[in-house]
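Annex B.
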Amino acid sequence: MSVSYGQIVMEEGSLKLANVVTVSRGVLIVPILLLESYHHLGYAIAVYLAASTTDLIDGWVARQSGRASEYGARLDAIVDNFFSVAILFFLLLSYPDVASRHWMALAVLFGGPLLYLLASWLLTGKLMMFHFWSAKAGALLLFALWPVLYLTVWEGVIGLAAAVVGISRIEQIAFILRGGTNLDAPHMFATVGEP
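CDP-alcohol phosphatidyltransferase: predicted structure tokens.
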């Protein structure tokens, strides 16, 4: 069964602007990679920053229009995961030698979330995407990683981002093991169960 672009951005028979904004983040991966491959790193970073901004805008648009939905939240999470994997490619295209120096941090940053999703599915039968503060901080650091590295040349940001993302995933597993299911819980010490 194939799904068209129209089916993704339409909800309840009408265009949902928040979904269009979300999908644009994924679509912008292609021009970023093209700009990078033609050595237009500054332009690639500019498009990347615009794409990253859509992660803040889509939820705001959904809430302002009164059209926030579970479908939109799932779509946002799926596009975020694709975009997160693309960040690894952006980094490696710009700084090919970073992988040899920071392979463990990169494994935590990009492999850790995949292992977490597998663990959450094995433990609960669902893919659990909690909105913990640590997860938000980890996402911010992950999305800021490439531009910060480009602007500052400080490779320590890779280890910092990996530490926060790793701790966040451990925190989420601990919450699941306590019986936690509330995706909007702020941290692992929140009340267990649905709100």
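The first helix runs from residue 5 to 9. The radius of gyration is 17 Å. Further annotation is deferred to the next reporting cycle.
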